[in-house]
UniProtKB/TrEMBL annotation:
Enzyme Commission designation: 5.6.2.4
Statement: the UniProt record of this protein carries the keyword Kinase: no
Catalytic activity entry: Couples ATP hydrolysis with the unwinding of duplex DNA by translocating in the 3'-5' direction
Record-level GO cellular component terms: bacterial nucleoid; cytoplasm; replisome
Protein name: DNA helicase RecQ
Domain of life: Bacteria
């Protein structure tokens, strides 16, 4: 079978999307790969398809238990033998999974990076044919990335221990130069095929509104009432904000639900499903909402507060318009947001990291916050601001964002003013 047959047979799709085929083919030719593609572009298929064609096992290193569970579930439903090994399993379940894995039952095994240090796992890996090691969410390896995980630094040691070096592929949606260099160096990618697909999401209309307190509430209500039936996400920085905004919208009779880590598991799952299956038009949530959620018809993402970085903003706003239809990404900015973000960063929990690392991360957090604030305050093209931050060249203003349109309004007003004066 070739990659297109696999795509059709297991995933039910007729054609590859931009970048997918190139990565798959280069992996199959034995080359390392680094793919930088925006959220929703379809990175998973880029390693799942070759995994089915390579002779041995593919190990996928993934940072989040829920992501592994979702992916394995859908692979199994598609008839693919896949499993995950992480701390959500009991010791007995891990033994069972490793025994089955050692017999070659699974083509794809998802593991948390910490697992690579376990002797039992190493034993299994040393005695199996590992064809590929895939590092998903590879920006976690970089202290420049927004969610650095020290355990990602162990991946290379693990690879070095294997009797035959597998193909190594890395995937991320974070495209800054620093992160890219870190991934290549720390994972010691061997002359990788680097594929960067464009970061522009043409169907997204970005805008920033300067509004504080009540004006934010008024904006949200007005927006929802003017867009009846349109599915949307409203992100707030704090759980408290989520609760109060939810309450207010609920009282207005808007079909709304809410999501944050303080809501108990069952209710949270139910709320998430209500949104996904369109029983609730709007979800008010913290940034705990969204990872691994694949809802295509989200028409708007409103940020009630400024997020802490462009990486976060791009990822969260990017949950709008996955179906390619026009969608709005609106950020409601107030100076108070910056103060809250600074407070949250100052009180970030670093657990067992070295003082030196903590210092470095703090500097970078603070830089990222400044860039984010810059986005809220710029009067130039917002799309270009995003693209340039992610290292893309831009040529002219997009004519499809709040600032580009605002410029025109101002230009018109000036013309009108001139006319009045001339008269
Ligand atoms: P990413 O990891 O890049 O954020 P995913 O791998 O989660 O994105 O894929 C996002 C969605 O796109 C999934 O629902 C996936 O099934 C779908 N998808 C991926 N490749 C294709 C394709 N070639 N044709 C149609 N849909 C695709
Ligand atoms: Mg992904």
């Amino acid at each position: 079978m070739n990659p297109s047959d696999i795509l059709k047979k297991y995933f039910g799709y007729d054609s590859f999307r931009n970048g997918q085929e190139e990565i798959i083919k280069s992996i199959l030719s034995g080359k390392d790969a680094l793919a930088i593609m925006p959220t929703g572009a379809g990175k998973s298929l880029c390693y799942q398809v070759p995994a089915l064609l390579l002779s041995g096992i593919t190990l996928v290193i993934s940072p989040l238990i829920s992501l592994m569970q979702d992916q394995v579930k859908s692979l199994n439903e598609a008839g693919i033998h896949a499993a995950f090994i992480n701390s959500s399993l009991t010791e007995a379940q891990i033994t069972k999974a490793l025994n089955l894995a050692a017999k070659g039952t699974y083509k794809i095994i998802y593991v948390a990076p910490e697992r690579l240090e376990s002797n039992r796992f190493m034993d299994f890996a040393l005695n199996s044919e590992i064809s590929m090691v895939t590092v998903d969410e590879a920006h976690c390896i970089s202290q420049w990335g927004q969610d650095f995980r020290p355990s990602y630094l162990k991946i290379i040691e693990f690879i070095n221990h294997l009797p035959v070096r597998p193909v190594v592929s890395a995937f991320t949606a974070t495209a800054t130069k620093e992160v890219k260099t870190d991934i290549e160096c720390i994972l010691k990618l061997n002359r990788p095929n680097v594929v960067v697909t464009g970061f522009d999401r043409e169907n997204l209309y970005y805008s920033v509104e300067h509004a504080a307190g009540r004006r934010k509430d008024a904006f949200v209500i007005d927006y929802i009432e003017k867009h009846p039936g349109e599915s949307g996400i409203i992100y707030c920085t704090t759980r408290k904000n989520v609760d109060s905004l939810y309450e207010m919208l609920f009282k207005r009779g808007i079909p709304v639900t809410s999501y944050h880590a303080g809501i108990d598991n069952n209710t949270r799952k139910k709320n998430q499903d209500d949104f996904i299956y369109d029983r609730a038009q709007v979800v008010v949530a913290t940034n705990a909402f969204g990872m691994g959620i694949d809802k295509s018809n989200v028409r708007f993402v409103i940020h009630y507060n400024m997020p802490q970085s462009m990486e976060n903003y791009y990822q969260e706003a990017g949950r709008a318009g996955r179906d390619g239809e026009n969608s709005q990404c609106i950020l409601l900015f107030s100076a108070q947001d910056v103060i809250i973000d600074k407070f949250l960063l100052d009180n970030k929990n670093f657990e067992e990291m070295d003082t030196e690392d903590i210092e470095l991360i703090k500097q970078r957090d603070s830089y990222r916050l400044q860039v984010m604030e810059g986005y809220c305050k710029t009067t130039s093209c917002l799309r270009n601001y995003i693209l340039e931050y992610f290292g893309e060249k831009t040529f002219s203003p997009c004519d499809n964002c709040g600032n580009c349109h605002r410029d025109y309004t101002e230009a018109d007003m000036t013309a009108e003013a001139k006319w009045v004066i001339n008269c």
